[in-house]
Amino acid sequence: MRLSRYFLPVLKENPSEAQIVSHRYMLRAGMIKQSAAGIYSWLPLGYKVLKNIEKIVHEEQIRAGHIPMLMPTLQSADLWRESGRYDDYGQEMLRISDRHGRDMLYGPTNEELITDIFRSHVGSYKDLPLTLYHIQWKFRDEIRPRFGVMRGREFLMKDGYNFDLTKEDALHAYNRHLVSYLRSYERMGLQAIPMRADGGPIGGDYTHEFLVLAETGESEVFYDSEITDLKFGNREIDYDSVEQCQAVLEEFTSRYARTDETHDEALFAQVPEERRRVARGIEVGQIFYFGTKYSEPMGATVVNEKQERVPVHMGSHGIGVSRLVGAIIEASHDDKGIIWPEGVTPFHVGIVNLKQGDAEADAACEALYKSFTALGLEPLYDDRSERAGAKFATMDLIGLPWRITVGPRGLKNGVVELTCRRTGESEELAPEMAVEKVAGIYAGL
Amino acid sequence: MRLSRYFLPVLKENPSEAQIVSHRYMLRAGMIKQSAAGIYSWLPLGYKVLKNIEKIVHEEQIRAGHIPMLMPTLQSADLWRESGRYDDYGQEMLRISDRHGRDMLYGPTNEELITDIFRSHVGSYKDLPLTLYHIQWKFRDEIRPRFGVMRGREFLMKDGYNFDLTKEDALHAYNRHLVSYLRSYERMGLQAIPMRADGGPIGGDYTHEFLVLAETGESEVFYDSEITDLKFGNREIDYDSVEQCQAVLEEFTSRYARTDETHDEALFAQVPEERRRVARGIEVGQIFYFGTKYSEPMGATVVNEKQERVPVHMGSHGIGVSRLVGAIIEASHDDKGIIWPEGVTPFHVGIVNLKQGDAEADAACEALYKSFTALGLEPLYDDRSERAGAKFATMDLIGLPWRITVGPRGLKNGVVELTCRRTGESEELAPEMAVEKVAGIYAGL
């Protein structure tokens, strides 16, 4: 993309309404614009990051054998009356009346709807195991929406639901989700620690939250520092293997890690003192096993091998897709702006032309642009007639991990400058070597 | 995908509520499930088709130089009061009151919101031309939703908005949209004819609708039969070229083609009688140029080269993404089921194992499955222990364009059977030749 043809409305000033760094940078980098309290438009740059995160989530869910579908945003109140949650949910549920006066709601979650789909179509244990998921916009009418997309009212979430014949099978589904979530977050450049959590309104006595450590996190977290050394890495996993998934669960959850909601001082005291950490974290996902909590009242049953009709064991599993955009920024930025991990960056590399209009510099930039595009990488080429300082400031603010600077002086010596956003380190390279180096980094993801 | 692990709840009976063929087949093929009047869940098979259509729309919009973003589903009523449309829109607008009693609405379209984004961030003619678009769920509270996804209440639409300094530039944007729409529909296997249309509530004195001919179409259409011979084909086009885009507009709109709303008997009579056609059509898209209708009242202005502040010229351009799923089925089916065009099919090829459990047949199917997957194609392998007739009926119903049938008898002669869904023609081929033939068809798309 050429910046002269893009829509990137960066702001020079810090917007006064933004209290945390991700909100501030998302506004300043032209990623979002608030259209109503807690409701945002995703401007082109923000949209690209959102889609990159969504893509990783899809790929990892499909890899785990989970099946994508899509439920609508609006739901009938009747289903929620059946589960008993319509009255329980309180004012965070946006209740709507249609032109015929029928009670509807903007779905804050989808246990009822998916259970209804299941019971309408599945009747035999032979159709199990089954895990369906979708990525859809949801709404929670927060009384005080704030922190930008971190606590908005309309938000994008992946929610998945497993249906299994037995508790044992459902716990395998739980473990599969845990593994797929670890992989997903790592691909986004995040370390998200699974912490024992509280069931809340969805219910469930077996649940973990995934927390990203960040000073601005809404939760206080307590953990054994050994946990931050764990990496999922590139290991191969067979998602059908109960043992392999269970082993990952044990590896990543056996050490102490809890939020303030479930924190237990006595247990924490058993962690060697030098490994005890108290910090803050941002919740970016949660997995639940809740057994027959919805299947029983809603009649989601199957006939088992003995011809008995039994309620299925279910769980639900969520990833906060739009919230992750903010969480990644909270975890990865400096005082100049955002630092995107390569896995989610909106453009793979920035090209800064120090002397727009100089025939040699323009040609070199165009050649770089074509080389990257031919390799399937997306460059953002700042082809505006701005001074170098303004171009650098924009690139630093929007946080592309790699920048190539092209100017007449370097070109005389046959080089361009390749700069890493995270370290700030630069090196001079022949243009084709710079392309090769950047391409190699992305090929290794 | 192995069918034994998929969620494909096909129905044997015709659902009584479905009046038109696309609705009937979408329910029977397990593509959708109604969750409330005019509101559907997209089951896995339907979701895949929806995503394929969405992908084509994205690719063609980006090719035309239009920039993707995403606006929220819920909007504040204030913006609609500013344009004067809040009261005009009538009961089809779903009005919502949040917990603080603020007036909101579920967006039926986004002229106000995009104009607000534009005026907040763009001030100079140098930032033009600009075309932003998004693909998002919208809601129209139809009094009598019917025909499945063809006239649902919650529906997925691509809507794009161009901002230009002059009427001339805006008409070029209009033409770019026309060209990109022609390409999009052709890639979906559809012939959609641009017809002179009526502005309706969006306004605009320059507008075309795109109609797909189908007996169940909601509009009566009148056209010169020469129009159906026109193909966009694989021609290269420079979207920046005013002349090239204008030439396509003229080629595709110079012959008589109108819906009942704009039909003119006198003009139609000038078409040679043997070329006059009266038929029915389904609207799958519409483009508008509406000048300064929104930019003037909402103050969306730029400073031009003479330092004068002028309102921008705008247009809006929509494609009915979820509606297209139904429209494609209306245009492409037979009495056995759907016939997907290769461009949108949910799976590229079906593999039917005539004797599940037979070692040789199982191995041959697995080998085909792996070959297709390795080529980046998605097979649907019916690995269930069902009789052949039931497997064929399912494949015919869900409409995959190509089917490979594998049985012990053929394998003895070293062949499998490759069947074209559309023609019903079969040929016996060595398995690797069948893979090569199918791969060749998709490579040519």
Automatic annotation (TrEMBL), chains A, B:
Give the GO cellular component terms, alphabetically.
cytosol
Q: Which domain of life, per UniProt?
A: Bacteria
CDD domains in UniProt:
ProRS_anticodon_short, ProRS_core_prok
Against InterPro entries, the record matches this protein to: aa-tRNA-synt_IIb, aa-tRNA-synth_II, aa-tRNA-synth_II/BPL/LPL, Anticodon-bd, Anticodon-bd_dom_sf, Pro-tRNA-ligase_IIa, Pro-tRNA_synthetase, Prolyl-tRNA_ligase_IIa_type2
Gene3D superfamilies membership: Anticodon-binding domain (3.40.50.800), Bira Bifunctional Protein, Domain 2 (3.30.930.10)
UniProt keyword Protease, yes or no: no
What are the UniProt keywords, alphabetically? Answer: Aminoacyl-tRNA synthetase, ATP-binding, Cytoplasm, Ligase, Nucleotide-binding, Protein biosynthesis
Q: Where is the Aminoacyl-transfer RNA synthetases class-II family profile domain?
A: 38-341
Task: Give the UniProt subcellular location, in the record's own words.
Answer: Cytoplasm
**Coiled coil start-end:** none
Judged by the first EC level, this protein's enzyme class is ligase
Enzymatic reactions: tRNA(Pro) + L-proline + ATP = L-prolyl-tRNA(Pro) + AMP + diphosphate
Q: What is its EC number?
A: 6.1.1.15
Q: Which GO terms describe its biological process?
A: prolyl-tRNA aminoacylation
Q: Does the keyword Ligase apply?
A: yes
Q: Please provide, alphabetically and separated by semicolons, the GO molecular function terms listed in this UniProt record.
A: ATP binding; proline-tRNA ligase activity
Complex formation: Homodimer.
Family from the record: Belongs to the class-II aminoacyl-tRNA synthetase family. ProS type 2 subfamily.
Name the job this protein performs: Catalyzes the attachment of proline to tRNA(Pro) in a two-step reaction: proline is first activated by ATP to form Pro-AMP and then transferred to the acceptor end of tRNA(Pro).
User: Which PANTHER family does this entry report, sorted A to Z?
Assistant: MITOCHONDRIAL RIBOSOME PROTEIN L39/PROLYL-TRNA LIGASE FAMILY MEMBER, PROLINE--TRNA LIGASE
What is the name listed in the Swiss-Prot or TrEMBL entry for this protein? Proline--tRNA ligase
